[in-house]
Amino acid sequence: MKCVYCCNEIKDGNFAREHVPPKSFFKKGTSSLITIPACRACNNKKSSDDEFVLNILSMSDLISINPEHQFHIDKMLRAVKRPQKVGFIKEILSSTHTAVTSEGSKNAFIFDESKVSGWAGINAQGLLVHEEHIEHCNYKHSTMMLNLLKVEFPDEKQLLELILSLTKSTPSKLVGSSEFKYWIQTQDEGYVVIQCFYEELFFLTMVER
Question: Fewer beta carbons within 10 angstroms: which end of the chain, N or C?
C-alpha cells in the first residue's frame, strides 16, 4: 500500500489513517469519517496545516452565527492560548481592520488565502482517492474559496450561480452531522469537487486527469 502524499510504499508499523477532512473538524465521537492511507511522516507533517486552516475557518462570522458549530470556536480559543500560537495571534491582530459590507462595518482580518486554498485542494484530492477516481493527492489542480467571489462582477456572479445550480440539482455526500458535505462531478478533462464546511464555507477544486 502506498502513501497518498509521497506515493512511497508504507512500511510495516508506519501506517496512518489520514482523515479527510481531519478528525479535528468534527465533534468528538463523530463516526463514519473518511480515511485514506498515508505514512506517519506525511500524516504528521500535514497536522500543522490542518490546525491552521481550522483556526482560520473557525474565525469566520459565517460559522459563529450557527450555534451548532460553537464548539469549533471554543476549540479555537483554547488552542490559540497555547504559547506556540503567539506568532499566529500576532499575525492575525496585525492584519485586523474595519471592512465596510452590505450589512454595515465589520471587523475583518487578512489570512493566507493561498495556504487555505492549497489545503482545500489537497483535501479535495483525498476525497477523489476515497471515491477511487485517482490514486494519490499529487495531481495538477486549482482551488478557489467561493465565499471570496464578488456578485457585482458578472463573471464571478455567473460562476456562483452555476455552482449554486449544481449543488441544488445534485445530491451531496455528508460527513458528520452538518460539519462537511461535498459534491464530485466527472468531466472529460478531469474532476470538479465542491466542498462545504459548516454549511457556509465553500471551496471549488478542479483536478486534471
Answer: N
CB 203 within 8 Å of CB 145: yes
- Distance of alpha carbon 3 from alpha carbon 138, whole angstroms: 11
Provide the grid cell at 163. 455552482
Tell me if residue 121 falls in helix, strand or coil.
helix
**Whole-number Å distance between alpha carbons of 150 and 80:** 31
d(CA 38, CA 40): 6
Measured CA to CA, the distance from residue 143 to residue 183 in angstroms comes to 14
Q: Where are the domains of the chain?
A: 15-208
Q: How many CB atoms lie within 10 A of CB 131?
A: 15
Answer yes or no: are the C-beta atoms of 159 and 142 closer than 8 Å.
no
In angstroms, rounded to a whole number, what is the distance separating the alpha carbons of residues 59 and 39? 31
Q: Which tens digit of pLDDT belongs to each residue from 61-117? A: 777 777 777 777 787 777 767 766 667 767 776 777 777 666 677 777 678 899 999
Q: What does pTM read for this prediction?
A: 0.88
Query: And the C-alpha cell for 166?
Result: 449544481
- Bridge partners (DSSP) of residue 186 are 191
**What is the DSSP-derived secondary structure letter of residue 102?**
T
